[in-house]
């Protein structure tokens, strides 16, 4: 275990926001984490898990807490029945590496989630999703350690209380440390290719035979083209959730804006494209106080140099207020604020 005092966090969040933590611990196993929690130096100190830092806004420059981060891990097959395979991944394994390696091993179910930044342990917190697939659809169960008592508990899928970009762990960030996850994949899992972006990419490639590796490659290409690389410009990916409105509200908006982008839901509601709303309102490319809206993807706020967490949240609040005034639609922030 590595323990750092007054640790610089600017390289541990993809927004590259300046902040320091009173304590930062890099752990490799459950026993190391348990020993850390039992250390008298941290009695009464808030304990917060840090994943890949890719869905995070650091609001304060000085964070009076013990931040804990799992180091790199691996995955393994733990059960097989016919074409169905259960795999287990350590919390610290980079998520994209897990997707790439399972696809290469012929296992399907998460290829649409390629190139999402972060770690395997952080994936359930946000219930990550993309191109018609959410983690909740393949997660079997997970192990988590109580950050107050050190007790380890197994959560089944239903106990995780998954929702759109939400879970019980996101609602209680200082309570649990996910240590490993188990996913149910399959060699014959059906391919999910209904999203328009995937169909357009497939057409542009000449409609080759649809394979799991092709879906993985197309998702990577689309994400690289549409979303800024955090290594090149600081960002936390999509900053707002796609808002869900009633079918009646959607028809009212559609009458005013015929090109409105919406995705019908099973319950009759419609999920709107937050990026379309922000773009149509004229925010794309806007910049102020070092923070701005990406010039190719209005859903992404970026650090153009020297941005602070306060400036990021101020711009986000201004955008949300404008969208509410223009369309009567509320935007909800996606990243966690620390």
CATH hierarchy, class of the largest domain: Alpha Beta
First and last CA, distance: 23 Å
**Number of separate domains:** 3
Q: Quick one: overall form?
A: globular
Strand content: 25-35%
Q: Which series of helices and strands comes N to C?
A: EEHEEEEEHHEEEEHEHHEEHEEHEEEHE
Estimated radius of gyration = 20 Å
Structural account:
With 338 residues, the chain is α+β, with helices and mostly antiparallel strands. The protein folds into 3 domains: 2-70, 2-Layer Sandwich (Uridine Diphospho-n-acetylenolpyruvylglucosamine Reductase, domain 2), CATH 3.30.43; 75-186, 2-Layer Sandwich (Uridine Diphospho-n-acetylenolpyruvylglucosamine Reductase, domain 3); 234-337, UDP-N-acetylenolpyruvoylglucosamine reductase, C-terminal domain (Uridine Diphospho-n-acetylenolpyruvylglucosamine Reductase, domain 1), CATH 3.90.78. 25% of the residues lie in helices and 28% in strands. It is built from 9 helices and 20 strands. It has helices at residues 30-37, 95-104, 123-126, 168-171, 196-204, 212-226, 247-256, 274-280, 309-327, and strands spanning 2-8, 20-27, 47-49, 56-57, 62-70, 75-81, 84-90, 129-130, 133-134, 139-146, 152-156, 176-186, 234-238, 244-245, 262-264, 270-272, 287-288, 291-293, 300-303, 336-337. The strands form 6 sheets. It has a 5-stranded antiparallel beta sheet, with no helix packed on it. It has a 4-stranded mixed beta sheet with strand order 1-2-5-3. Helix 5 packs across helix 6. The longest helix is centred in the C-terminal third of the chain and has 19 residues, at 309-327. It is globular and about 60 Å long. The model has no long low-confidence stretch (mean pLDDT 95).
